[in-house]
Amino acid sequence: MGGTAGFIRASLAVGTFLVWCQAQSGMRSYGPVFEEQPSHTLFPEGSAEEKVTLACRARANPPATYRWKMNGTELKLEPDSRYRLVAGDLVISNPVKAKDSGSYQCVASNSRGTVVSREASLRFGFLQEFSAEERDPVKITEGWGVMFTCSPPPHYPGLSYRWLLNEFPNFIPADGRRFISQTTGNLYIAKTEASDLGNYSCFATSHIDFITKSVFSKFSRLSLAAEDARQFPPSIKARFPADTYALTGQVVTLECFAFGNPVPRIKWRKLDGPQSSKWIGSEPLLQIQHAGFEDEGTYECEAENAKGRDTHQGRIIIHAQPEWLDVISDTEADIGSDLRWSCVASGKPRPTVRWLRDGQPLTSQNRIEVSGGELRFSKLVLEDSGMYQCVAENKHGTVYASAELTVQALAPDFRLNPVKRLIPAARSGKVIIPCQPRAAPKATVLWTKGTELLVNSSRVTITADGTLILQNISKSDEGKYTCFAENFMGKANSTGILSVRDATKITLAPSSADINVGENLTLQCHASHDPTMDLTFTWSLDDFPIDFDKSEGHYRRASAGSAEEKVTLACRARANPPATYRWKMNGTELKLEPDSRYRLVAGDLVISNPVKAKDSGSYQCVASNSRGTVVSREASLRFGFLQEFSAEERDPVKITEGWGVMFTCSPPPHYPGLSYRWLLNEFPNFIPADGRRFISQTTGNLYIAKTEASDLGNYSCFATSHIDFITKSVFSKFSRLSLAAEDARQFPPSIKARFPADTYALTGQVVTLECFAFGNPVPRIKWRKLDGPQSSKWIGSEPLLQIQHAGFEDEGTYESQPEWLDVISDTEADIGSDLRWSCVASGKPRPTVRWLRDGQPLTSQNRIEVSGGELRFSKLVLEDSGMYQCVAENKHGTVYASAELTVQALAPDFRLNPVKRLIPAARSGKVIIPCQPRAAPKATVLWTKGTELLVNSSRVTITADGTLILQNISKSDEGKYTCFAENFMGKANSTGILSVRDATKITLAPSSADINVGENLTLQCHASHDPTMDLTFTWSLDDFPIDFDKSEGHYRRASAKEAIGDLSISNAQLRHSGRYTCTAQTVVDSASESATLTVRGPPGPPGGVVVRDIGDTSVQLSWSRGFDNHSPIARYLIEARTLLSSQWKQMRTNPVNIEGNAETAQVVNLIPWMDYEFRVLASNILGIGEPSLPSSKIRTKEAAPTVAPSGLGGGGGAPNELIITWTPTLRDYQNGDGFGYIVSFRRKGSQAWLRARVPHAESLHFVYRNESIAPYTPFEVKIKAYNRKGEGPESLTAIVYSAEEEPKAAPYRVIAKSVLSSEMDVSWEPVEQGEVTGVLLGYEIRYWKDGDKEEAADRVRTAGLVTSAHVTGLHPNTDYHVSVRAYNRAGTGPPSPATNVTTTRPPPKRPPGNISWTFSGSTVSIKWDPVVAKADESAVTGYKMLYRQDSHSAPTLYLASKSQIDIPIPEDFTHAFVQIRVTGPGGDGTPAEVHILRNSGTSMMVEDSGTRPAPHVVVVTTNSLLLVALVSSLEL
User: Fewer Cβ within 10 Å of end Cβ, the chain: N or C?
Assistant: First the structure.
C-alpha cells in the first residue's frame, strides 16, 4: 500500500490511546517553481577545465522535465552532442567561444504548466599578447610631465595595470607624482626627475576566478633634457568622463591626475550637495562605496600647486536594475469569477513589464486584458489554468516572478467544513451557524429547520455568505438545522442539532477602586452558567486582553486551583527497551491499585483528591528495564495554608509623643512565608514605607521610630500568602495607639529591629538583612562591611540590605546545595579489564557521596571498592553490567548522576575497521598502517608481508596497539601486508596492499618579508609531486591553519594551478605578522617550508595607567610602554572622559609634547571635584595606535567656585513679590560639595544690599516677599556661587522689576467691521502707558454671539502695541458682541464698552459651469455661465481666475467683473490649468478647474460641472482639440 504513515498520540481524562494514521494519497500536484536558476558565467579561454555547467532546478509535482534555449533557439540535446542534461543542469563539454558564447535560458515543464528561467550569458575570458612592434622612445625636458600610453591588447573582461621600470619585477609604486590609470592603463608622471630615466613597459593582468594571466608590452625609453626646470601651473591630463553611469550598490571610481611643477595636489568636491561618508581613496581617485541615488550630481576635481590651479567637472548618474515591489502568488480561483493580478517593479530607467503563460508571450485577447504590470481575467474558464510569469526589464537587467493559476469547478462538498454536529446556544442569546461548503462557483444556500424553510425575519438572518444567525433564542428553537448548497456542478447538504442551554450571568461584578503605586488589589468576578458546560474567565484592560504569562507577575488569577482535584509528579526516562515505572513515598513503595487515589500516566504519578495528612512527604521515581534500574532525586509534596488571626482583642498602646513604638504582628499558623502590611483605621488605608516607619518582613512587626500626632488611630496587621496564582490575605484585630502630649525631648538611636548574629544563606540566593532604630530626630541607617569592600550587588532602601545572587566573595558564613563538578557517563569496557569511576560534588557543608546499582545501595565487595566519590572495579565480569548512580547530599539537598556500564566479550572483528585496501606511501618517507579490530578483551596482533613475519627493526615498528610503522620507504617495500588478531573468543585477519609513489618536494619556497599595515604581498610556494596523485597546498600562521573563508578577504590563493600554492595577503594588519608555513600535501606525504612576515604599524596600547598626585586641576599619570609594532614610538597623547560625557577628549599636558621614551606626564587644566578616567595612546610615523585600558576612576580635589552663575533675571509673581531667577550652574563649574547661591539685591537708588543664601545646585529662583514693595519697582540684583571651599566671583549687576499689577484702564473707540462671511476686523484706541503698571504685552479681543453670555466668549490676543486685529472662524450671517482689554503679565484689565457687528452671508456654493473657450492668435477667450446667488448667499460681485501654464510654474491671478475673460498666451502654448470661482462680500466660492490642451484653435464647450458630483472627469474630443475638465475643491 502506497503513501506515508504516522502516529498521533492523544491524551484524554480517561487515559491515553494511540491512533494509526495511513495517508493514502501523495502530495498535491503543482507546477514548476525554480529553486536554482542559471547565472552569468565567464569561462577562461585555454583553461584546463573541459566543461561548463549552467545550473537549473525546479520544484514540481509531477517532477519537471527540462529544455534549454540558446539565443532564443531551443538546443537539440542529442546523445553525441557536446550539450547534455544532468538533472536540470546544462553541461557543455569542450566549450568553444565561436559556438557557445551567448544567452541561455532554462525551460521547466510538467503537466501543470511551463516556466522559463532568467537569461544567463556565457562569455569567454581572454587576454592576448601586446603588439610585437617596438615602442618609440620619449624625450622630454626634466621637470615637465609625461604620459606613457599602454594600448592594451584585446581582452575580456577588464584588466588591472602596473608599469615596469627597466626590469621585472621592478614595479613603479603609486605616489603623488606618478599615477597609473586603471581605466586606460596609461602611466602619468606629473613632474619628471632624473630618477625617472629608463625603460618603461605596461604590465597588464587578467583575473578570472583563480586564473591569473599577465602580459607586458615592449619597453619605451625615457630620456630627459637637462635644463633649469621652471615651475608651471597644473594641467589635468587624466580626466573622468563628462557623464559616468553606475548602478546602485556598485563602487564608482573617478580618476583625475595633473602635470605640474611643483607636483599638484588633487582635491575632490561635490558641487551640488554634501560630501558622502562613503568616499574613500587617495588623491588621484575618488571612490564611492555602495553608490545610491543620493550620490548623483556634479563632481569636480581640482589640481593645485603654487603656480595655479586647474579643474575638471563631470556628472555621476545612478541607474538601478529592476527589483520587485509587488509580485503574483499561486492562486486558486472559481470558474466564472474575475481575477486581477499585479506585478510592480522599481528600477532606473523605469522597467517595462511583460507577461508569459506556460513560457509563451501573453497579450490582450477575448477575456484577458494585459496592461503593463496588470493582468485581468473576466469569467475564468478551466483552460486559464497554468503557469504565469511577469517579467520586468530595463537595459540593466531582467527579473522574473512566477505563479500558478488553478481554476476550479467543484460541486458543493461539506466534508471539510460540515455544519457543526451539536450546536449549543444560550437562552435569550444569539447563535451563528456558518455554512461553508467547498464549491466552485460559489453555491446558492438555503436553510431549513426540520421541514420548515427559513427566511429572513426579525429573529432570523441568512447572510450573503450563507451564515444563519438566530437571535433571542428560546427552548422552542431546539431542533435540526440543515444547510442545502447547490451550483451547476451539483448539490449537497449538512445538518446540525441546536441545543438551548442556560445563559451565563455575572453574579458578582468587579468594583471600581483607587490604590497607590506599589499596592496590591483583587478585582472580584463571579458567574453562573449551564452546569453541563465548561466556564472560562478572560480579563482585558481598556479593551486589550491581559496576557497573564507576559505580565511580569503583576497579574494572576486569584482563584486558580482551589477546585483542582489532583497533583501530578513528573517522571520520564529515555530507555530501550522502554522503561517501566514505580514510585516510593518516604522510602516505601506505593501500591498503584485500580481503585487507589494514586495512578500512573506514562511515568507520572497522579494523586487524586490529595490530603495533607496522608499525602505530605518525600516522593521518588524508580525506572527499570532489562538493562538496569535508576532512581530519581527525591521531591517533597507540601500543602500551603494560612489560618485566621486570633479573635482576641488586642491591648491598646499609650506612649509619649516623640518616643518610638513597636506593634507586634503575631501572624497565625501558615506555610510557606507571608508578606506583611499594616492598616491604619480602615481598609485599604495601608501605612507607607518611609524613613520613620518600618514593617519587618521577617516578623511582621510595625516599628515607628518617632511618633507624631498623625499616628493616632487603630492599627491592624495585614498578612498575605502567595502560592502560585492563589493569593489569600487575613488581618488581625485592631490595636489603638494614643499619645501623651509632652515637650518631646531628643534622644539617641536605639536599634529595635535587628538581623540575627548568624544569617545562613545558599549561594545564588537573595540575602536580606533588616535594621531599624527608634530615635529623635529620626535616625538614618547606614550599612558597611567591616572586613572587605562593599559589593556592587547591594541594593535596597535604608532599613534593608539586600545582596543579589549571594556568593562566597560576600564573606561571612555561607552554605550551598550540592553541585556536581565531575560525574560518570555511559561506559563500554572489555571483560577482564579494570575500571575507575569518579563523582565529585561541591557544596557547603561538604556533601557525602554514595553509590547505587540498579537502584540498590552499593558497598565494597570482592572485586568492587567504594571509597566516597570513587568506584573501582578489578577484572570486570559480564555480571558487572547494569545501571549505576552516584548520589551527593548535604542538609540542603541531593543530586543524582546516572550511567550505564556494559561489559563486552567479543572475538576480533575487522568489519568496522579493516586494514586499508590500497596503502599509498612516498619514496624515502614513512607510512603508518593501523590494525584496529573490534575485540574484547584486547586482541594479540601479528603482521606479515606476504608470507614473511614482521618484527621490530630499524625500519619496522609494531606499536603496543598493533599499528605497523615503516620508515625510509623504498620500491622494494611494495606488497601485501596482513594483520592477524586473536583473543580467547576467536581470531581474524585483514590485508592491505602497499604502493610506493614519488615524494613531494617544495621547488620554490616562500621568502621572508617586511611590509607596512595596509600593504599587499604574495608569498610564493611551488612544489613537485607524484603525477598520479592530487596535490593540495595549505598555509598556517604560527602553526595555526589559515581559514580562507573566515579571513575577511585578507588571504586568498594567488593561483589555481595545481603545482603553485602562492598566498596573497591583502590589506595586511598587525595580526598578520608571524611565521608562515606552506605545506604541499598528497594523500601519502607532505613537504613544508616557512618564511617570516613582519608587518609594521601604529603602536599597541600602553599598559598599566596609574593616577597619582591628585590636585584640584591636575594629576600625575604614569604608564608602561606597549608594543612599538616594529616602528619606534614618537610621542604619546592623553585622553580623558568625565561622568558628564562618554566621549574621550584630548587633554593638555605638561610637557605639552610627550616624547616616545616618556612613561609619565602631568595632566593640567582639569575641572575641580570631577570624576575622571584617563587613557594613553602612542603614535609613530605609521599613525596613532589603540588606546590603553582606562585608568581607575578618580575625583579631583575641591576648590571654591571660579565662575559666577549666568542668566540672571526675574520679574513677575504675586503682588509684593520680587522674583529673581538664574540658570542653575552645571556640574562642570560647581567645583565642590555643598553648592549653593548667594543672591544680593536692593531697591534701585538705595545703598544697603540684602543677601540671601539659596542652597542646592539645582535651585533656579529666589522669591523675596515684603508688603512695602510697590508694583513694578526696579531692583539691582547680583549673584555668586558658594561651596564648602568658599565663595566664587559675583556676577554683573542686573535690573529686575517686582511683580506688576493688571492694567487699570480699558481701550476705547472700539470698531468692529465684517470682512467676509467668517471674518471681521477690529480696531481700537490704546490705553495710556501711565495706566499700565508694568509692561503692556498686548490686547485681548473677546467676541460672543448675540444671546450667549460673555463668559462663553472666544478670545484672540495681539502682541505688542498694535491697535487692530483680524478675527477668523466666525459663523456667516450672525450677530456678534465685541470688547477689548489690555493685558500684561499680571493679567487683563477692565473691558471696553461692547460693540456689535453682523457677519455677511456666505458666498455661493455652486462653481461656474458650462465653460467654453476660443483660441485667437496669442489669446484665449474663456466664457462660463453666470452664477446667481441664492437668498441665503451673498451677492456675486465678480470672478477670480487662477491661470497656471503647468504644474511647476507660478500661477497668475486674473479678476473679471463678467462671465468672460481674455488671456494672453505664448506662441508655444500647448496646455494650461485654469481655476474659476465667484467672489463677493461673503468671500470666494467653490472653484471649477479645467485643463486645456491645444492642437489647432477650435473652440470647445464643456458640460455643466456644477450639476454633477465632484470630483469627476469629462473628456471631449474634436479633430484638433482635447479638453479634460476636473471639478474639485482646490483653493485659490
Answer: N
Nearest one of 355, 224, 246, 357 to 294, comparing CA atoms: 246
Strands 490-501 and 422-426: parallel
Residues in the chain: 1532
Paired strand residues for 929: 964
**What's the grid cell of residue 405?**
493559476
pLDDT computed for residue 1523 by the predictor: 30
Q: Are 1381 and 1342 spatial neighbours (Cβ–Cβ below 8 Å)?
A: yes
Distance CA 883, CA 855 (A): 8
Q: What is the pLDDT of residues 275-332, one digit of tens each?
A: 777 776 567 998 888 888 888 999 999 999 999 999 999 999 999 888 887 889 889 8
- What is the spatial distance between Cα 1321 and Cα 1302, in angstroms, rounded to a whole number? 26
User: Which three cell numbers, joined as nine digits, stand for 1450?
Assistant: 507660478
The three cell numbers locating residue 266: 588633487
**CA gap 108, 67 in Å, rounded:** 7
pLDDT band of 1467, cuts 50, 70, 90: confident
> How many Å apart are CA 1477 and CA 1455, to the nearest integer?
10
Q: What is the DSSP letter of 812?
A: S
Q: Are 1285 and 1231 in contact (CB under 8 A)?
A: yes
CA distance 333 to 817: 66
For the sheet with 800-803, list strands across it: 767-770, 800-803, 794-795
Sign of the torsion angle spanned by Cα atoms 481, 487, 491, 492: negative
> DSSP of 1382-1406, one letter per residue?
EEETTEE-PPPPPEEEEPPPPPPSS
CA-to-CA distance for 233 and 1437, rounded, in angstroms? 72
Cα–Cα distance for residue pair 488/335, rounded to 1 Å: 11
- Where are the extended beta strands (E) located within 136-230? 138-141, 146-148, 155-156, 160-165, 178-180, 187-189, 198-208, 211-216, 220-225
The span from the CA of 1155 to the CA of 1153, in Å, is: 6
Q: What does 59-74 look like in DSSP terms, one character per residue?
A: EEESPPEEEEEETTEE
Contact 847, 888 (CB under 8 A): yes
| CA–CA distance, 316 with 288 (Å, rounded to integer) | 11
At 721, is the secondary structure helix, strand, or coil? strand
Burial class (CB in 10 A: 0-12, 13-18, 19+), 870: middle
Residue 1504 to residue 1425: CA distance in whole angstroms: 9
Long-range (24+ apart) CB contacts under 8 A made by 1152-1157 are: 1155/1131, 1156/1128, 1156/1129, 1156/1130, 1156/1131, 1156/1132, 1156/1180, 1157/1129
Full-model pTM: 0.40
Question: Model confidence over 85-132: pLDDT tens digits?
Answer: 988 899 998 898 888 899 999 999 999 899 999 999 999 888 999 999
**Cis amide bond preceding 95, omega within 30:** no
pLDDT tens per residue across span 161-195 = 999 999 888 899 878 899 999 999 999 999 998 88
C-alpha cell at 527: 458567574
> In whole angstroms, what is the distance from residue 732 CA to residue 719 CA?
9
What value does the mean pLDDT of the chain take? 86
Q: Which three cell numbers stand for residue 893?
A: 539537598
CA distance 238 to 1525: 57
Q: How many alpha carbons lie under 13 Å from residue 65 in its C-beta half-sphere?
A: 6
Using the predicted structure, report yes or no on whether residue 1401 has a pLDDT greater than 80: yes
Return d(Cα 957, Cα 981) in angstroms, integer: 17
Q: SS3 for 99?
A: helix
Cβ proximity of 1384 and 1335 under 8 Å: yes
Write down the pLDDT at residue 1301: 87
Could you give phi then psi for residue 1242, rounded to 5 degrees?
A: -160, 155
- 1086 in helix, strand or coil? strand
Q: Cα separation of 1098 and 1014, whole Å?
A: 11
Spatial contact of 793 and 783, defined as CB atoms under 8 Å apart: no
